[in-house]
Amino acid sequence: MLIVKYPRATEPLWHEWDGKAQKCGLRHTVYAVNGDQYTGEWLDNLKHGKGTQVWKRTGAIYSGDWKFGKRHGYGSYSIPDPVTKEYKKVYTGWWENDQKCGYGTTFYPGGEHYEGEWSRGLRSGWGRMYYGDGSIYEGQWLADRPGGEGMLRLPNENRYEGGWKDGKKHGPGKFFYLDKGQLFEGIWAADIPKCGILIDFGREEAPAPTQYPIPKV
């Protein structure tokens, strides 16, 4: 009986190479064509899990969680100082779909920083902002500006408590002039007091009280 043997079908070499090129699980540093580099976990050729990305053009580094190729979860983002070349942390906190989302802290040039809630990369929700002149705002934020209820404390300890809109005092509010021992309570619109009453408040403890007390109505 004649037996005919047929040669086994062989897979093209590119199939083998393509299989080896698929990235899934933990990998050593992988370089992109533009010089960016990533070290960490992959899933279906996408950054997924824990990993560190370095951008060649800016030198920025992100280290933290990834989900299907985007920053998602908890992580920190840092950039090199243009003079000292030492890395300075810019943001530490939560991310969603490659944007700041949830609770996190951002450091700005000049020593300013914000700690609080974010949404789609903007300050939204509750947060506290430390400004370069020593002022501190604590309260609600909307679309990256104070919006809702909040308190602004100035370097001389004077403070405003009340409503905000588009980053300006708006609506019912109180301004405590603790340096003079007075309190203004009224309605504000776009940072301008429209109507209200001014009374003495803590006049005895004020460092620079007005010459004459305000008569009681």
From TrEMBL:
Residue ranges that the Swiss-Prot or TrEMBL entry lists as coiled coil: none
Pfam name, any one: MORN
GO cellular component, one term: acrosomal vesicle
SUPFAM superfamilies tied to this protein: Histone H3 K4-specific methyltransferase SET7/9 N-terminal domain
Superkingdom: Eukaryota
Matching SMART domains: MORN (SM00698)
Cell location: Cytoplasmic vesicle, Secretory vesicle, Acrosome
Keywords: Cytoplasmic vesicle, Repeat
Function: Assembles a suppression complex (suppresome) by tethering SIRT1 and MDM2 to regulate composite modifications of p53/TP53. Confers both deacetylation-mediated functional inactivation, by SIRT1, and ubiquitination-dependent degradation, by MDM2, of p53/TP53, promoting a proliferative and cell survival behaviors. May play a role in the regulation of spermatogenesis.
PANTHER family, per database record: MORN REPEAT-CONTAINING PROTEIN 3
Protein name: MORN repeat-containing protein 3
